[in-house]
Amino acid sequence: HPAWTAITDELGRPAQTLGEFPLAMGDTIATNRVFRRKFWNADIGGFPDSADAETFAIVRATLQARQFDFLRTISCVQHTRLAPGRLVPAPLTADELASRITWHHTTWRLLHDAADPATWGPWLGSLIDGDLGDFAADAHRTDDLYRERLQEAAQECLALADDTVWPHVRVERKLCLWLVANRQWADLEQLLHHFGIYGSMPRTEVREG
User: Fold this and answer.
1) Which residues make Cβ contacts (< 8 Å) with residue 113, sequence separation at least 6?
2) Three-state SS for 130?
3) Which of 63, 165, 173, 190 is a good FRET partner for 140, with 20 to 30 A between their CA atoms?
4) How many CB atoms lie within 10 A of CB 15?
5) Cα Rg, the chain, nearest whole Å
6) Cβ-based burial of 155 (10 A; exposed 0-12, middle 13-18, buried ≥19)
7) Is a pLDDT exceeding 60 seen at residue 209?
8) DSSP helix/strand/coil, 86
9) In b/e form, how buried is each residue of 37-49, taking b as 16+ CB within 10 angstroms?
10) How far apart are alpha carbons 10 and 23 in whole angstroms?
């Protein structure tokens, strides 16, 4: 599991503010966060029609809320409905990927304009460690247009990432990001195969000299 889950998931954190807990932006799923219903419906507009916009809604709510609760226990579980005969979800189409990336761009602009690096760094780190890594894991099952759009997103993330971002990204997801940004699809598939057999690398520190 990503390192941030030990911070956001293992303790109940009632009545938090973003200033007290900027690492909240590293976990922007809706399954363990509580806002007042009136605030969520009136100020945020409730859950968006598109599932792709859910992260944007959670980030916006976290930026605007005076306080929010982090639950130690998960309040709901989301499952992807599989097509008949499938054991794993089909990868996104190139257009579906483009929609997800567009919402991530929108979320990034909101965060970057409204917050400081201590707040948006964990979010960008969780994006690289989470969705972007998952998109990369499906690259070998997709087409050239999907991989082209994924490469553009990876290059942009690689350019934006700094020392506030990398502590929130596992080693294997850093490697995935670099390989995608540089179109090393064969090496990416080999890397994913290796980690699929041997598991994730332990927390690693690279030192010069």
Assistant:
1) none
2) helix
3) 165
4) 10
5) 18
6) middle
7) no
8) coil
9) eeebeeebeeeee
10) 13
Residue 86's closest CA among 129, 48, 36, 141? 141
Residue indicated by tokens 């304009």? 113
Instruction: Give CA–CA dist 160/177, Å, rounded.
Output: 12
Q: What one-character-per-residue DSSP string does 67-132 give?
A: -EEE-SS-S----PPPPTT-SSPPPPPHHHHHHHHHHHHHHHHHHHHHS-HHHHHHHHHHHIIIII
* Span 142-150, average pLDDT: 97
Which residue would you say has higher pLDDT here, 12 or 19? Answer: 19
CA 8, CA 183: separation in Å to the nearest integer?
Answer: 33
Answer yes or no: are the C-beta atoms of 165 and 128 closer than 8 Å: yes
Residue 75 reports pLDDT greater than 70:
no
